[in-house]
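WARN retry 2 of 3 for item q-0093 after timeout on previous attempt; input resubmitted unchanged.
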Amino acid sequence: MNRIALIAMGLALLAVIGLGGVVIQRQGERIDGLEATVGELRAVSDQVNARRDVDDATRLEEIEAQLGFDAPSWPAENFAERITQLEWDLALICGYLHRTGAELFC
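OK item q-0093 returned
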């Protein structure tokens, strides 16, 4: 009887250890995925921070280049308004392309 109890306890212990190993492996995969996501977010954050140093005129030229527009001869004091309008236009275009499944440049 003692042998059967010891064998049963040993099997139960092996099952618990095996299940614990699987859980630890899956948690490790999740952690790796989270670390990759954090790395991507940091890269994007670095890009955003780098763009903050760019003046409005350069930023406007980048946005207009993405939209395929040539820079119109608007007054220089309206940079912020022009940038906001062009970003809004780009967001609408990208949203439409995303809905239709034709994401070309977004």
